[in-house]
Specification:
By secondary structure, this protein is an all-beta fold. Helix content is about 0%, strand content about 50%. The chain is built from no helices and 19 strands. The strands form five sheets. It has a four-stranded antiparallel beta sheet, with no helix packed on it. A four-stranded antiparallel beta sheet has the order 5-6-7-8, with no helix packed on it. The chain is globular, with a radius of gyration of 17 Å.
Length: about 240
């Protein structure tokens, strides 16, 4: 048994049960790395700033890579070496006229080659969301998608990173889509879905042929009840 003092906002474990990551928002803004079998704290010096649950930090299949984006407006990729995670790169995910940016959605391919980051940006007119796709060897994005009206709340991708699915709140007036599937090669959406509400969660299967997404039946920033779920056949582009 391991006692962690503070407000745990997320946690994740890799596919091979190698390591658990546990971000804590208060009193310390940091992330703990634990051994799943013993509960031993392997590392506790990774700075992490988040006051509320977003999507949990992403781990590659064998926990070799750890990626996260927090409320500092930066995305960070770490690599396990010398018995601890060490930084590969750290880069800003602020964009355009945003006065503040929060990292929200995140996904990583099984081998750690591709990292997708979703954001919530605060702009003079209200909110904006962006999607960034990175290689693990460069802090310069492969592409950026900017036409998201609000927070990119959740991201998942196929095992090889070739398909990226994004659930977003969408704009208040529902003038643009709130669900997207991208190919890694381009920021032009392969699939879009505009719902009467907001989408908060997404899960894609390993080969990218199928994903499910769900959320509130009205926009998440409006009062209202109920929810909707959608099943998307990604390769045939049918719902």
């Amino acid at each position: 048994e391991t006692e962690i003092i503070g407000n745990v906002v997320e946690m994740n474990i890799d596919d091979n049960n190698t390591r658990i990551v546990v971000p804590v928002s208060a009193p310390d803004k940091k992330m703990y790395v634990l051994d799943p079998e013993t509960g031993e704290i392997l590392q506790d010096d990774i700075y992490y700033y988040s006051n509320s649950p977003t999507q949990a930090p992403a781990l590659s299949a064998n926990a070799e890579y750890l990626a996260f984006a927090d409320f500092t407006g930066y995305a960070t990729l770490l690599h396990w070496e010398n018995d601890k995670y060490e930084q590969v790169w750290r880069t800003s995910v602020s964009y355009g006229e945003e006065t503040s940016t929060w990292g929200s959605g995140i996904a990583i391919s099984k081998d750690g080659s591709y990292i997708a980051i979703g954001t919530l940006g605060f702009v003079p007119s209200g909110y904006a969301g962006r999607v960034f796709l990175f290689n693990n060897y460069s802090p310069n994005p492969i592409w950026i998608y900017t036409d998201v009206g609000d927070e990119v709340s959740n991201i998942d991708m196929s095992d090889d990173g070739s398909l990226i699915a994004c659930a977003t709140y969408g704009p208040m007036d529902h003038s643009t889509s709130d669900f997207f599937v991208f190919r890694k090669q381009s920021n032009v959406p392969l699939i879009e879905l505009n719902t009467p509400g907001s989408l908060e969660y997404v899960d894609m299967n390993g080969d990218g042929s199928l994903c499910i997404t769900s959320g509130k039946a009205v926009h998440v920033r409006e009062m209202g009840w109920g929810g909707n779920a959608y099943c998307i056949y990604s390769t045939s582009m049918t719902i």
